[in-house]
TrEMBL record:
Keyword Ligase included in the entry's annotation: no
Enzyme Commission number(s) from the entry: 3.2.1.-
Domain of life the protein comes from: Eukaryota
Catalytic activity: Hydrolysis of (1->4)-beta-D-glucosidic linkages in cellulose and cellotetraose, releasing cellobiose from the non-reducing ends of the chains
Keyword Hydrolase attached: yes
Keywords tagged on the record: Carbohydrate metabolism, Cellulose degradation, Glycosidase, Hydrolase, Polysaccharide degradation, Signal
Family to which this protein belongs: Belongs to the glycosyl hydrolase 7 (cellulase C) family.
Designated name of the protein: Glucanase
The organism of origin for this protein: Hohenbuehelia grisea
Length: 450
C-alpha cells in the first residue's frame, strides 16, 4: 500500500486546483515580513504568502482520486462545471519540497523545480490567514531588493499587482469554499484561459489540452483584471508594464471580450518600459550598469496629478540602488519616442506609434485606469515562470521571432529563441529572491538620498 506521502506526490502529477477546501494536508502559510514607511520612520509587519490554487492538489472531496490527470479532466467526476466545483477539493501545499518556495524573515526565494510537474510557482501576499493584503500606491512608492543572478534566458521572476478579490471570491462565488487561504480568485490582464477554476466554477467547457505543456490546457473562459507589472525580469532583461482594463475587478470573459483588441476587456500588451527595447543595451544585465550578477534595489514611484492620493495616476517612475549608488532608469533613445525614463500617457502613445503596436492602452483607461484599480485595492503577486508558448522572447529576445530585428521595438534582449527553451541542466535549479519589501510615502522607503 502506498504511504500518504507517496499518494500526495503522485497526485500532484495530475492535480492543480479546486474550489472546495480539503482536509488531507494542512495549509501552513510561510511567513514573510514586509515594511510600511512614512516620513517619520518605518514599521515592519508580519504577513505571509499563499500558493495560487492553480498549483495545488485537486482531488475528490471524499478521497485521494485526482479530478484531473495531466491536462485531462476526469469526466466521471467533472461532468459539468458545477458538479466539478462541488466534488473536488484543493488542499494544503508542501511549499519547500514540492514548489521550491522558502521564506526567511523578509525574504522570499522562488526556485524553478525541474522535478515538479509544475516547475514554476505563483504566490500572493496575505493580510491575514484568509484575506489578501490590498495595496493602494497612488502618491506612494514601493521598494524591494532582488537577486536575479540565477535566472537564465526563458525564465521570468516577477513581482506585480493584480486586482484579485480580497477574499479570493469566497463571499460572492457560491461554489468557492476555499478562498484566499488556498489562493483562489486569480486574474490578470492576459485574461488567462488556463485557470482551472474561474469565479468559483470549473473551467471545463471547451477544455483543450496543451500540445506544449503536458500539465496545462485552456477552457472557454478567461479571468480578466487590471495588472501593474512592477518587475518582470531575468539576468538578461527587465521590464515594468501597466495593463489597464475597462472592467472593475475580476471579470470572467468569453469570446472576443477576452481578446486584446478593441472588443477586449483588458490591454494585454500594456505600456512597457524595457531598457534594452528602448535603446539602452548596456544598462541592465550581467556586468552592465545595473549588474545582475549582484543584488540590487528596485524603487517604483506612483505620481499623481495633484500630489495626493486623490489625484489621477499620471506617471510611474523607476530608480535603482546598487552598491550604495542611486541610478535613475535608462532614457529612451528610439526615434519618435520622447527621451523619457518613466511611464506617462504621452510616452505610451508615442511608443505604440513608433513600434507599430496597436494602442489599447489609452482606450482601456491609461495610467488613470491603473490608479482606479489601486483605489479599489490590488494584490501583490510574486512568481517564477517559464513560457512554453513564446519562450519568454517578449521579455529577453527577438519578438515576434520572425520579425525584422532592425524594426524598432522588436529586439527586447540578447537571448536567442533556443535559449528560451527550458531543459533540465546539471547545475542547481534557477531561482529568484525578493527581499526587504517596503512601501509608503514618497521618499520614505530608502535610506539613500534620491
Amino acid at each position: 500500500m502506498l504511504s500518504f506521502a507517496a499518494l500526495y506526490t503522485a497526485s500532484l502529477l495530475g492535480a492543480v486546483c479546486g474550489q472546495q477546501a480539503g482536509t488531507l494536508v494542512a495549509e501552513n502559510h510561510p511567513p514573510l515580513a514586509v515594511t510600511e514607511c512614512a516620513a517619520n520612520g518605518c514599521i515592519q509587519t508580519s504577513k505571509a504568502i499563499t500558493l495560487d490554487s492553480n498549483w495545488r492538489w485537486l482531488h475528490t472531496t471524499q478521497g485521494f482520486t485526482s479530478c484531473i490527470s495531466g491536462n485531462q479532466w476526469d469526466a466521471s467526476i467533472c461532468s459539468d462545471p458545477v458538479a466539478c466545483s462541488t466534488s473536488c477539493a484543493l488542499d494544503g501545499a508542501d511549499y519547500s519540497s514540492t514548489y521550491g518556495i522558502r521564506t526567511s524573515g523578509n525574504s522570499l526565494t522562488l526556485k524553478y523545480v525541474y522535478s515538479s510537474p509544475f516547475r514554476g510557482s505563483r504566490t500572493f501576499l496575505l493580510d491575514n490567514d484568509s484575506t489578501y493584503k490590498l495595496f493602494n500606491l497612488k502618491n506612494k512608492e514601493l521598494a524591494f531588493d532582488v537577486d536575479v543572478s540565477q535566472l537564465p534566458c526563458g525564465l521570468n521572476g516577477a513581482l506585480y499587482f493584480a486586482e484579485l478579490p480580497a477574499d479570493g471570491g469566497i463571499s460572492t462565488q457560491v461554489h468557492n469554499k476555499a478562498g484566499a487561504k488556498y489562493g483562489t480568485g486569480y486574474c490578470d490582464s492576459k485574461c488567462p484561459h488556463e485557470l482551472k477554476f474561474i469565479a468559483g466554477e470549473a473551467n471545463i467547457l471547451d477544455w483543450t489540452p496543451s500540445n506544449l505543456d503536458p500539465n496545462s490546457g485552456t477552457g472557454r473562459y478567461g479571468a480578466c483584471c487590471a495588472e501593474m507589472d512592477i518587475w518582470e525580469a531575468n539576468s538578461i532583461s527587465s521590464a515594468y508594464t501597466a495593463h489597464p482594463c475597462s472592467a472593475d475587478g475580476l471579470h470572467r470573459c468569453e469570446g472576443s471580450e477576452c481578446d486584446g483588441g478593441p472588443t477586449g476587456v483588458c490591454d494585454k500588451d500594456g505600456c512597457d518600459f524595457n531598457p534594452y527595447r528602448l535603446g539602452s543595451k548596456a544598462f541592465f544585465g550581467r556586468g552592465k550598469t545595473i549588474d545582475t550578477n549582484k543584488k540590487f534595489t528596485v524603487l517604483t514611484q506612483f505620481i499623481t496629478s495633484n500630489g495626493t492620493a486623490a489625484g489621477d495616476l499620471t506617471e510611474v517612475r523607476r530608480f535603482y540602488v546598487q552598491n550604495g549608488v542611486v541610478r535613475q532608469n535608462s532614457v529612451s533613445s528610439i526615434p519618435g519616442v520622447p527621451a523619457s525614463n518613466s511611464l506617462t500617457d504621452s510616452f505610451c502613445s508615442a511608443q505604440k506609434s513608433a513600434f507599430g503596436d496597436t494602442d489599447s492602452f489609452a482606450p482601456k483607461g491609461g495610467l488613470a485606469g491603473i490608479g482606479k484599480a489601486f483605489e479599489r485595492g490590488m494584490v501583490l503577486v510574486m512568481s517564477i515562470e517559464d513560457d512554453s508558448d513564446r519562450n519568454m522572447l517578449w521579455l529577453d529576445g527577438t519578438y515576434p521571432p520572425h520579425a525584422d530585428p532592425l524594426n524598432p521595438g522588436v529586439v527586447r534582449g540578447e537571448c536567442s529563441a533556443g535559449e528560451g527553451i527550458i531543459v533540465e541542466p546539471d547545475d542547481p535549479a534557477p531561482q529568484v529572491k525578493f527581499s526587504n519589501i517596503r512601501y509608503g510615502d514618497l521618499g520614505s522607503t530608502t535610506s539613500v538620498n534620491m
